[in-house]
Amino acid sequence: MSHSAWRNLLAAFPFWLPVALWMGVIFFLSSLPDSITPGRDIVPDKLCHAAEYLILAFLVLFALHRTTRAAFATSFWITISWVAVYGLSDEIHQLSVPTRHYDPIDLLADVCGALVILLLLWGMRKSGKKGAELYSALMGERKS
Question: Over 80: is that where the pLDDT of 32 sits?
């Protein structure tokens, strides 16, 4: 690997580390039996799924925005694909966890959570100058 490739990788690392850590949190939580999953009695399961993957989608979009020059539409589809593939792998992983099972509705909740944040951010970008400024601030863009 060339020196500039290493430099680019190191520059991107801080933006992708939260993605990897959050994916680890999701994996850990889905490794727990149902009876000891935190918040199980407080928040409905599908809402938990949507919230977990809403956060993941935001982190992936943020990392893409900060480390690539991809257009929002491209980042949107990459993020949705990322969430869907990870959600599917999580559901398959749960086949080996006692008291857990594969649930396609959980996967749908995962993707819906991602869609909520992505559509909110898309709407924010398109809602005029103030919305675009807020979007830019959320994505960590510096003002010139």
Answer: yes
Of 43, 47, 32, nearest to 106 by C-alpha is: 47
pLDDT at 142 over 70: no
Q: Rg of the Cα trace of the chain? A: 17
Alpha-carbon gap, residue 144 to 54, rounded angstroms? 30
Query: Quick one: CA dihedral 40, 82, 18, 74, positive or negative?
Result: negative
**Token representation of residue 108:** 């749908």
> Which amino acid does the sequence have at 31?
S
| Count of Cβ atoms closer than 10 Å to residue 13 Cβ | 11
Q: What's the whole-model pTM score?
A: 0.91
Structure tokens at 89: 């792998």
Q: Where are the domains of the chain?
A: 13-138
